[in-house]
Amino acid sequence: AAGVIQSPRHLIKEKRETATLKCYPIPRHDTVYWYQQGPGQDPQFLISFYEKMQSDKGSIPDRFSAQQFSDYHSELNMSSLELGDSALYFCASSAQRNNEQFFGPGTRLTVL
Amino acid sequence: KQEVTQIPAALSVPEGENLVLNCSFTDSAIYNLQWFRQDPGKGLTSLLLIQSSQREQTSGRLNASLDKSSGRSTLYIAASQPGDSATYLCAGGSSNTGKLIFGQGTTLQVKP
Predict the structure, then answer these.
(1) Apex CA A82: angle with CA A78 and CA A88, to 5°?
(2) Which helix (H) or strand (E) holds B24?
(3) Mean pLDDT, residues A55-67
(4) A–B interface: beta-carbon pairs under 8 A
(5) What is the pLDDT of residue B82?
(6) Is the pLDDT of residue A38 over 90?
(7) How far apart, in whole angstroms, are the C-alpha atoms of residue A36 and residue A58?
(8) In this model, does residue B95 exceed pLDDT 90?
(9) pLDDT at residue A97 in the model
(10) Coil/strand/helix, residue B6
(11) Would you say residue A44 has pLDDT above 90?
């Protein structure tokens, strides 16, 4: 069965650089969620989209932005990267809100 | 604001033992409760989803229950195996947008 695809899987950036993370949801899933998991921490909700519209926002810095495109894939754009942004970034998708969420393998971002 | 707590933080058991992982949440207006497994440095694998109208779900050797009135969920693992060793996370969906609030996880080690 098709799963959530995230790219790239690993990313190394310098401080103050920008990064773009991509997420391709499971086919026919209309809802995408982004989570950030720091070392030794539980995942924290960042932002979500339903039918290409932002539906909820969590503890996402103003330096970050995201959108969902017409083909339902989503991109998380991160600017002015800081050392503290180093984390695993997960994308999850579901068929409508409040249904089971399926997570991608994550993008490991390292900021040097 | 929804808060999710998991006890214990770590658990070590001999192979073949039945065990229970505990999850508590503060907001009884919960939409659903989802249990995940996470291997070190890996993504989250969905194990079971319990909707707010349900009391339990079963999948193979796993059984999860939900008691909204007491703010508790349990994950029961029967006949544990070394391959069950991982971190188990529970997450509550407490808004109509579906975002998940995670507990800190229980790290399980099953010894052969």
Answers:
(1) 65
(2) strand B19-25
(3) 94
(4) 67
(5) 97
(6) yes
(7) 11
(8) no
(9) 74
(10) strand
(11) yes
- Judged by a CB distance cut-off of 8 A, whether residue B43 touches chain A is yes
Find, in chain B, the residue whose alpha carbon is nearest to that of A97.
B98
pLDDT at residue A2, rounded to an integer: 84
Query: Among positive and negative, which fits the CA dihedral A18, A24, A30, A33?
Result: negative
Mean pLDDT across the stretch B50-57?
91
User: A64 in helix, strand or coil?
Assistant: strand
Out of A41, A55, A108, the one facing B97 most closely (by C-beta) is A55
B98 pLDDT band, cuts 50/70/90, is confident
- Tell me, what amino acid is at B82? P
Which residues contact residue A81 at a Cβ distance below 8 angstroms, ignoring those fewer than 6 apart? Answer: A13, A14, A15, A16, A17, A18, A19, A63, A111
DSSP character for A26? P
B93 near A CB under 8 A? yes
- φ, ψ of residue A84 to 5 degrees: the values are -70, -10
Rounded to an integer, what distance in angstroms lies between the CA atom of residue A34 and that of residue A5? 13
Contact A23, A74 (CB under 8 A): yes
